[in-house]
Structure of TerB family tellurite resistance protein:
Amino acid sequence: MSFSELFDSEFKQRNKGHFSAIVRVALADGVVYPEEKEFLDKLASRLEITESEYEEILSDPLKYPINPPYSYVQRLERLYDLTRMVHVDHHLEDKQEVLLKKISVALGFTPSNVDYIIAKALSLVDNKVDADTFIYEMQHMHK
């Protein structure tokens, strides 16, 4: 196996684990609402999850290991990606915002601050900032 094949394989597994964790969050209340399903569809496409992998993960999300972000910057990077995906159509449904809040808590953001964090993240994404600016602004939002 070449180095590039190894990298691609690990990248694909990490994406499956990431997607699986988000599916678990969506299924936490026992129901995947249409808005959540729409978000999962977009996310699967973005993460290059095939249709068969998608169905397999939906049927058994515990099959794949969770790859949690360890550092604050990694959590912010994931939050940036997820916020952009949720907000891509510039029309955020209530259920999408609820899902984004659930995912943010699952990423390790404090539940007592999650509303403020999501509001700031959505504001930055609405202003079309790049990832570096997003991370900087999120790290310095209390200063």
Notes: Confidence is low (pLDDT under 50) at residues 1-7.
